[in-house]
């Protein structure tokens, strides 16, 4: 059987998707895990006890408009990506000493990876 190029592309895409869903990072599971963050963090741009996490992927730490960050968070000096989010969520005080997020962290590496995968979907 010979597939047309577009069908081949579709098949390749389906395969990639199949691999992806079996991958270590699972945004759907991360969305569920986000329940432990949602009391303080919105995803729609409104600040609460914590800054909104809308568009967090690639955003510089400590700059969301209207939120009063700690000095430590404002001085972090880096942007949020897979690596920095993972380190911060693993141990907030170790990653940014003196930041005031009242949250001890997520010890489970798989759950952190899922959370980060979900955070990256927030535009
Ligand atoms: C009890 C409230 C609370 C909970 C629960 C909480 N956070 Fe936070 N978070 C904060 C506060 C407050 C800050 C700001 C800290 C500062 O300014 O030092 C913050 C900051 C952050 C930042 C940096 C945001 C920025 O604009 O630079 C990220 C990312 C973040 N939290 C992610 C999470 C995730 C993911 C969870 C759940 C696993 C979570 N937080 C749970 C209150 C909370």
From TrEMBL:
Is-annotated flag, keyword Secreted?
no
At the top level of its lineage, which domain of life is listed? Answer: Bacteria
Q: What is the lineage of its organism?
A: Bacteria, Pseudomonadati, Pseudomonadota, Betaproteobacteria, Burkholderiales
Species whose genome carries this gene:
Variovorax terrae
Q: Which InterPro entries match?
A: Cyt_c-like_dom (IPR009056), Cyt_c-like_dom_sf (IPR036909), Cyt_c_1A/1B (IPR002327)
Any signal peptide, and if so, which residues?
1-24
Task: Tell me what this protein is called.
Answer: C-type cytochrome
Q: Give the record's keywords alphabetically.
A: Electron transport, Heme, Iron, Metal-binding, Signal, Transport
Q: Which Pfam families match?
A: Cytochrom_C
Task: Report a single Gene Ontology molecular function.
Answer: electron transfer activity
Where does the Cytochrome c domain lie? 25-123
